[in-house]
Amino acid sequence: MSSEELEVWIDQELCTGDGICAQYAPNVFELDIDGLAYVKGEDDELRQAPGAAVPVPLTVLSDVVDSAKECPGECIHVRRLKDRVEVYGPDAAS
Ligand code: SF4
Q1: Is the C-beta atom of 71 inside 6 A of ligand 1?
Q2: Do the strands 53-55 and 6-10 form a parallel or antiparallel pair, or are they unpaired?
Q3: pLDDT by residue (tens digit) across 35-81?
Q4: Are the beta carbons of 78 and 23 closer than 8 angstroms?
């Protein structure tokens, strides 16, 4: 993967609330009081609109990718900003 810019979003409908993502990348994922995981931006605010995405900081890219791979709900989606093609997650090509 090059340094092209990526963003990540969570499909809360499938989230099991186990918190794996928040353990791996606490700067990007957090469980809210509803027990579901949400992405959060550099301002530390959760993005709760359905399908809301935040940029993936390169410093935590591998943690975010690991979260997507191990997410039991298969509901973490990492995509390219420029064309919105999913590169990690359940809808990635390979
Ligand atoms: S790892 Fe997946 S299923 Fe688990 S809390 Fe995070 S988004 Fe939800």
Answers
A1: yes
A2: antiparallel
A3: 999 999 999 999 999 999 999 999 999 999 999 999 999 999 999 99
A4: no
- Residue 29 CA to ligand 1 centre (angstroms): 9
Q: Which residues contact 13 (CB under 8 A, 6 or more apart)?
A: 75
Ligand 1 touching residue 37 (CB < 6 A):
yes
pTM: 0.94
Which pair of structure tokens corresponds to residue 14? 């499938």
CATH classification (class only), 6-88: alpha beta
Ligand 1 atom index nearest CA of 74: 2
The CA 36 to ligand 1 mean position distance, Å, reads 7
The continuous run of DSSP H or E covering 29 comes out as strand 29-31
| Domain residue extents for the chain | 6-88
In ligand 1, which atom is closest to the CA atom of 10? 7
The response to whether residue 72 sits with its C-beta less than 6 Å from ligand 1 reads: yes
